[in-house]
Amino acid sequence: MPTYSTTARQLTYSAVSLSEAITAGDWEKHYLGQEKVAEFFERGYISNIRVLTEEQCDRILKDYEHFIDPSKRHPGHAMLYEHHSNQSGDSSNVLMHGLGQWRLTRLFHDVVFLPAISVPSSQLLDQDKLRPVRLWHDQMFAKPARHGGVVAWHQDYSYWTRTKPMMHLTVHITT
Ligand SMILES: O=C(O)CCC(=O)C(=O)O
């Protein structure tokens, strides 16, 4: 069971994870091929990289309900850095936006550390060598089927300036 420390405001778990079947020997299978790596440095992005199985998606969607359904609100809700239940500006649609989900549930916590994400990230931070990876922040946009809102047009250039020389990247996970 997770515990919530009121002093450290940090979620800790006793054991196991979303990737419990993955052992150190499995790291290599997550390496991107040289073609994909080259594509990233040529175009600035790559897409269609599977990071979760369907079974993992089904499990994480249960945790997702804590953030989208007020009647299932998580007991650690106050630990979110931000939570907006509807940023669409339209009460007939929903655009939930939150930061800090990784601190609340085990699966959202574990997704941040999945080798399927951290290993390719380590390859893509620097063209010349593998780099250690750390989380800057997580962010969730929820657009429920048939009544999902849209994110208004905006630019994210300021993110590009957070490290110099640039040594960060964004991982977009869609289900
Ligand atoms: O997924 C979206 O609709 C918006 C994403 C976005 O604004 C962001 O990643 O900062």
Automatic annotation (TrEMBL):
<dbReference type="Pfam" id="PF05721">
    <property type="entry name" value="PhyH"/>
</dbReference>
<dbReference type="GO" id="GO:0016491">
    <property type="term" value="F:oxidoreductase activity"/>
</dbReference>
<dbReference type="InterPro" id="IPR008775">
    <property type="entry name" value="Phytyl_CoA_dOase-like"/>
</dbReference>
<dbReference type="GO" id="GO:0046872">
    <property type="term" value="F:metal ion binding"/>
</dbReference>
<protein>
    <submittedName>
        <fullName>Uncharacterized protein LOC109476925</fullName>
    </submittedName>
</protein>
